[in-house]
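can u do me a favor
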C-alpha cells in the first residue's frame, strides 16, 4: 500500500460524514421499528389466543395485527435495501460488465427511486386525506385510519431516501448496488 492509498483510506474513514452516519442510523432504526412491529404481531396473536381460552373478547385484534404487518413491511424496506437483501432479478446484470452494467444499474435505481417517491408522496396525501375526513376503519376497532397509514407513509419516505442515497452513491462511483460482491477500488464497474 502506498502512502497515497493510506491517506485516501484515512480521508474516506474520516470522511464518513455525519450525513452518512445519520443515514445508516436511520436505516438501522427503521429495521428496529420493523422488528418491533413483528413482535407486536406476535403479542397480539398470543393475547388473542389467551382471550379465546378465557372466554373474553379482544375486539379488533385481527385489524391491529394487520396494521402491524403493514407497518413492519414498510419500515423494513430501507433496512433491507441497505443490507442488500431485497430479492432482485439480476439475470441481465450478471451478464453485463463495465459501462453497460453501470448504465443498467443507474437505470434500475432511477426507476425505483421515482416509483418509491411516487408511493411516498401519495402515502402522505392519503394520511392527510384520512385525517381531514376523519376516516375510521370498518372493523370493530374503529381506529382512525390515518394512524396506521402514517406508518406506511413514514416507511415509504425512508425507503425513498435510501434509494436516493444508493443512486447518488452509484452516480459518484462509491457503490454498485446490484453487484454480488461490493466494488473494490481499481476494479471496473
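np, heres the sequence
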Amino acid at each position: 500500500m502506498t502512502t497515497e492509498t493510506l491517506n485516501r483510506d484515512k480521508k474516506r474513514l474520516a470522511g464518513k460524514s455525519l450525513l452518512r452516519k445519520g443515514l445508516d442510523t436511520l436505516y438501522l432504526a427503521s429495521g428496529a421499528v420493523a422488528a418491533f412491529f413483528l413482535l407486536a404481531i406476535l403479542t397480539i396473536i398470543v393475547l388473542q389466543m389467551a382471550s379465546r381460552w378465557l372466554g373474553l373478547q379482544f375486539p379488533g385484534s385481527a385489524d391491529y395485527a394487520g396494521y402491524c404487518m403493514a407497518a413492519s413491511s414498510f419500515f423494513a424496506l430501507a433496512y433491507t435495501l441497505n443490507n442488500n437483501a431485497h430479492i432482485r432479478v439480476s439475470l441481465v446484470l450478471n451478464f453485463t460488465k463495465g459501462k453497460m452494467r453501470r448504465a443498467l444499474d443507474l437505470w434500475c435505481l432511477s426507476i425505483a427511486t421515482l416509483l418509491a417517491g411516487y408511493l411516498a408522496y401519495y402515502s402522505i396525501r392519503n394520511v392527510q386525506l384520512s385525517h381531514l375526513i376523519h376516516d375510521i376503519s370498518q372493523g370493530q376497532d374503529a381506529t382512525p385510519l390515518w394512524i396506521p397509514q402514517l406508518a406506511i407513509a413514514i416507511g415509504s419516505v425512508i425507503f425513498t431516501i435510501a434509494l436516493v442515497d444508493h443512486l447518488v452513491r452509484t452516480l459518484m462511483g462509491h457503490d454498485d448496488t446490484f453487484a454480488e460482491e461490493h466494488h473494490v477500488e481499481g476494479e471496473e464497474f
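The longest helix spans residues 18-53. hope that helps!!
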